[in-house]
Amino acid sequence: GQQVMQIPQYQHVQEGEDFTTYCNSSTTLSNIQWYKQRPGGHPVFLIQLVKSGEVKKQKRLTFQFGEAKKNSSLHITATQTTDVGTYFCAGRTGANNLFFGTGTRLTVIP
Amino acid sequence: NAGVTQTPKFQVLKTGQSMTLQCAQDMNHNSMYWYRQDPGMGLRLIYYSASEGTTDKGEVPNGYNVSRLNKREFSLRLESAAPSQTSVYFCASSEVVPVYGKLFFGSGTQLSVL
Predict the structure, then answer these.
(1) Which of A17, A56, A100, B41 is most buried by its number of CB atoms within 10 A?
(2) Could you give the CA distance from residue A51 to residue B8 in angstroms, rounded to a whole number?
(3) For chain A, what is the mean pLDDT?
(4) What is the Cα–Cα distance from A11 to A106, expressed in whole angstroms?
(5) Cα–Cα dist A32/A48, whole Å
(6) Interchain proximity B31–A96, CB inside 8 Å
(7) How far apart are the C-alpha atoms of B39 and A66, rounded to whole Å?
(8) CA nearest B42 in A: which residue?
(9) Is residue B1 over pLDDT 70?
């Protein structure tokens, strides 16, 4: 069953507002990855976090991995219309499988 | 490079029909995967192949079979399609050395079973 929960399921923001999506696992993760899927497209890798408490930035995107390695977040500052899409976290528990979260669909209103 | 190529892009089947989804990657990756994506369910792993010659079940393997034909190709077969298998199917590949890497996805197959 689903091991990685992600909230919110949907988020509508005005262009320029910030956006955050959260990912929680019931078990400790060895690492977590984030993907973006544009409408009608396929998931595209954004980043991987491995260390407890790790924070990584990609321009306006900030990714965090919790101290207990059970949760993660993606924060987008000053959203733009190009940020539209569904953001997925995917946690690995040490085996080969990645367990994907249910995703957060972001809509940016111009 | 083409990356991960999936065929077909769209398919409509009648209940009970069979079909094979094809996937090929040109990145020399060892691991390949088949996922299905349903609204509100995220991506769920059907089967994976950690390396050429091996295949293993994922979260939702029932009703599917796979074949790792060689290092490049990994096919997914529906022997007797059911309406519950209506979904978008994605093939993916990754490298696993030195650590499990990022997934590269194909463009997907939209399958409808009537």
Answers:
(1) A100
(2) 39
(3) 93
(4) 5
(5) 6
(6) yes
(7) 28
(8) A102
(9) no
Q: Which residue has the tokens 């890497």?
A: B101
Interchain proximity A42–B106, CB inside 8 Å: yes
Interchain contact, B103 vs A9, CB within 8 Å: no
Sign of the dihedral defined by the CA atoms of residues A103, A21, A90, B27, in that order: positive
CB neighbour list of residue B113: distance below 8 Å, 6 or more residues apart = B12, B13, B14, B15, B81, B82, B83, B84, B85, B86
Cα(A100)–Cα(B103) distance, integer angstroms: 12
Nearest Cα neighbor of A46 from A24, A6, A74 is: A74
Provide the token pair at A21.
Answer: 């999506």
pLDDT of residue A95: 62
The single-letter code of the amino acid at A42 is H
Of all residues in chain A, the percent with pLDDT exceeding 70 is 95
pLDDT in tens, A61-104: 999 999 999 999 999 999 999 999 999 999 987 666 788 999 99
Q: Does A102 touch chain B (CB under 8 A)?
A: yes
Contacts of A40 (CB under 8 A, 6+ apart): none
| Chain A with chain B: Cβ pairs closer than 8 A | 54
Q: For residue B80, how many other CB atoms are within 10 A of its CB?
A: 11
